[in-house]
Amino acid sequence: QVQVQESGGGLVQPGGSLRLSCTRPEFLVNTCGANWYRQPAGQERDWVSAITPEGSTGYADSVKGRFTISEDKSTNTVYLQMNNLKPEDTAMYYCKSCSYWGQGTQVTVSS
After folding, report:
1. How far apart are the first and last CA of the chain?
2. What is the pLDDT of residues 35-89, one digit of tens each?
3. E strands, the chain, where?
């Protein structure tokens, strides 16, 4: 069973930072990029950021300039550094690689 696993979520005050991690099997690292999505409670799942196997990155307009995606291929881990967090960033965050999804990690931004 292919396992994609997110971690690093939590409760943070507005303006704070969190770093999410996504670990995936080695065979996905050089085959597929990785994408982060988020889904606020009761809403649709939206794309947040992506990184290709070559290291190219992309961001949704809502997070551009605040979030940074990166990858450590030696540990099969993709990171999402989230700075200047806002209450509207509150959501379950999911990692996807090829067709494989993780279970998600909850991010709550609240004072």
Report:
1. 39
2. 999 999 999 999 999 999 999 999 999 999 999 999 999 999 999 999 999 999 9
3. 5-7, 10-12, 18-23, 34-39, 46-51, 57-59, 67-72, 77-82, 91-97, 100-101, 105-109
Say if residues 103 and 9 touch (Cβ distance below 8 Å): no
**If you search the block for the tokens 């995606």, which residue do you land on?**
69
Total residue count of the chain as it appears in this document: 111
Distance from C-alpha of 53 to C-alpha of 84, rounded to nearest angstrom: 27
Burial class (CB in 10 A: 0-12, 13-18, 19+), 31: exposed
Exposed, middle or buried by CB within 10 Å (0-12, 13-18, 19+), for 25? middle
